[in-house]
Structure formats: structure tokens, C-alpha cells
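REVIEWER CHECKLIST
Item 1: Sequence provided? yes
Item 2: Single chain? yes
Item 3: Sequence as submitted:
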Amino acid sequence: MAIEAGVSWREDSNWRRQLLEERSAANLAAVRVVLVEPTHPGNVGSSARAMKTMGLGDLRVVGGCGIDDEAARANAANARDVLASARHHASLTDALAGAGLVMGLTARSRRRSAPPMAVREAAGVVTAEAARHPVALVFGREHAGLTNDELGHCHHAVHIPANPDYPAMNLAAAVQIVCYEVFASVGASAEAGAAAETAGAEHLEGFYRHLAEVVEQVGYESAPGMPRLMRRLRRLFNRARPEPAELNILRGILVAVQRHTKDADESL
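Item 4: Structure as written out by the authors:
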């Protein structure tokens, strides 16, 4: 971008810095942290504090312990505003509503989980996509992490490298590391070019429900094998990142299959 006549290089540099800061703040505002069934309120408060130190403020809690707790407020310290604005959801699906990208944190690699991604690489993807749509970072239970079904909601499974002899990490510590990586990468991603919009989490969930309904209707898979089949199909479409229009085409095909199956049944 050329410097306008009469504008010094210092003024232009300050303008660019301000623009970058505004874009960076907007990107961070689009990133939400989702804690699934935390057991200790203190970890929720510490997570809120970890988020605020890195410029994040959208905290969601799915089930688990309550948010309005003295231990949570004590550990949140000067991040009580993040804790006060946190939202409690009954299900992970509700907490992910509107998110165009979902990253699930896991302490170990899983053969049947979402495609793996290193935390630093994931942070760059998060901040780049946060310019286009909300992004969710999902953390599991302190004692057991995320289930395979919960990872099925995620586009990628993110792993934080740790000592293989003792890889255990406190929930709030994991939140701090991931939020730091996101904060460190947001400046480099704030000026990323626009890319095609991808289908949001609720759009994908509607598609998965529709797909499961059709699979059962046509008798492709017996009931005992359905959970395994749907996990594999989720991995397939989460990896593909379809656009809303593409997902609408697929749902249109499913509707046509249902209509054809119904007509065939009625003709018998």
C-alpha cells in the first residue's frame, strides 16, 4: 500500500499497527474456549485467568461443576469478568453452535479420532479462520479428556507435546499453553486473505443426523454398527470441510434418496 502524500512514514506505520491490533482483537474475540464437564471449579477460574492474559474472553462450560463458585472466582483473580460472562451449556452441540472450526485437545493420539495437528500449527489455523467465523477450542475432563464421540465433533485433534514419562497436564495449564500459541500467532494471521466459508458446526450436525437417518432407512448398516460408521463418516466430512452450498447439495441428495425409498415402499 503506497503512503499518501503528506503522510509521514511514522504516521503510516502507526496506522498499520492500529489496523493490525484491531484485526487481531477481532480474531481473538471470535475464539471460544469450551470446557467439557470440568470437575473442579478452581480449574474453571484458572482457565478464565489463562484466557484473559492472552486476550481471549469467550468461555463456555458443558455440564460439570458450576461457574458461580467461590473457588472459581478466587482462581480467576482479575479475570472475574471472563468468568461472569461465561456460558453454561447442557450439551457440547449447544456450546459449538455457530463455530466454523472446532479443535479438540487430546493428551494422546487416537487411531479413530479427528485428524491430528500439532498445537503450534493449529494455532495458526485458528487465528486465520477466526477472521471468517467463530472457532472453538474444546478441552476435556481433568481425569479422562474427551470421548471419541466428542472428538467426532472436531475438525482436528490437537496434542500438546510433553514428557512421555509424565504427560499429565492440569486443565488450566493446557488452556494457558493453547491460548498463548493462539495469541502469539494472531498477528501473523490477522492479514490473511479471505477463503471460502465452510459449514458451521450446527449445519454439520444437522447433516450428520440426516445422513444417519438415511443410512438406517436404506438398511446399509445394522444398528450395532451405526456408531462406528458414523464416527468414520464424521471424520471424512470434518476433514473435507464442505462449504454450506456443498452441504446443501448433499442434503438434497439425501432427500431424493428418502423420496425414492418411500415411493418404492408404497409400490410394493
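Item 5: Key structural point noted by reviewer: Residues 244-267 form the longest helix (24 residues).
Item 6: Recommendation: ____
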